[in-house]
Amino acid sequence: MTGLWIFLPSLTIVCLVEEGRGWSWERHCSPSGRANERRAALLAVGASERAASFDLFSETLEPEWIAQALAATGMASLRRRKLPAEHVIWIVIGMALLRDRSIAEVVRHLDLVLPTPRGERQRVTGGAIVQARDRLGPEPLAWLFQSTADVWASASAEEHRWRGLAVFGVDGTTLRVPDTPENDAHFGRPGTSRGGAPAGYPHVRLVALMVLHSHLLAGLALGPYGDSELTLAARLWPQLPERSLVIVDREFASYALFHQLLDPDHERHWLTRARRGKRTLKWKVLERLGPEDVLAELCPSESTQRLHPALPERLRVRAIRYQRRGFRPQTLLTSLLDPVTYPAAEIITLYHERWEIELGFDEVKTHTLEREEALLRSKTPTRIAQELWGLAVGYNLVRLTMARVARRAGVPPGRISYRHALNFIRVFWLTAWLSSPGVLPRRLEALHDELALLILPERRPRRFPRAVKIKMSNYPRKRPRRPRRRSRRLSDRHWG
Asked: Domains of the chain: which residue ranges?
């Protein structure tokens, strides 16, 4: 018999117990009028009889993790407030998963305001929510994300190994943030093609470390737009575990980075596509391993030698040249030197899983954040960082649910619809705690009946290069208008 604990923001704790093929629900509700009993309910999951390690794909966060995040960052509070720190964490996560609702609606719908001693529901103003978020800061959310990612992403990478290696991807993207003086000063803006004028919104840059097969985020680095992806990615390389392979975009391809990532003693490997043009790395063929498959020796450029004089003068790599129909020939560079252990055909197929991280960015921008004009909604850099860490936790929660559905259906995680899974979590999160225990099994059975809606057909191979499908508007960018000086009418000037 296995139990699945679901912690709902109202501090109602529901246990879904599986007995054979049947499911039964046990509900543990704390009285709404007593804060100390709510705290006891919050700690009930941590004290329950469970395995020492957390479940591979837990559908919600452990309350114990939230308590640890607050304690580790010094944000735990004994003062009784309308919005305690553990509730504010759920507000930030709810802001990400419920992007179509205002922050005040998130608080109201998730029942996150503590009642009075008489059991009466209190109202909370927008200013009180902002103050509660400022008291919390971004550090507990960052700690919570990394702690949960260390467990969830590591377990997922272990489950989906390729040739004994855990496969990760690293890439970067940007998100628009609200146009406020604080965000503008901290994050900065990209330029545009229209005369070099700055963009309409400030941008935050982020680089993600992702388990490619399941899309679970294993690490995240945030910074202003002016920080390069290479600079931010330097924070993520130490998180790569032993016996792993990281696939990176060709913009990361550099002689210095190859040496930094290479760790044959612990079987840490890398795979990328060779650059073209002036930045192409020079190599000399040492041995032919097969058709279009060679063992080569890289040499650093003069500029690389000046910047990194301690680097060795030679580096052995494997170069695999291939061509897909409708595309130009490409060359892959990798530290996987053994052609028997790591066949060239499998490496070529594996490299194209790098696009999974691009799909993950699309899931965040298009579906989770609803492709709003300003994707994030906080007005200060500190709250932007807090919102991003909450978004990362929320995204991983959706991906964990998808992994459970995939395992139950016997399909890869990539065959599960992110949009449908996100909508299911939104509806369930908003309504499950209002349902009686007798209704929940029927809702679960209804979900099983609709399971086919979550399964996508097998992905067709991509045969067309990227191209712009929607032309940018010809309208000028909105700028503050300068007041025009009034001039006398022509008749007044004429007659003096």
From this structure: 2-141+380-454, 160-359
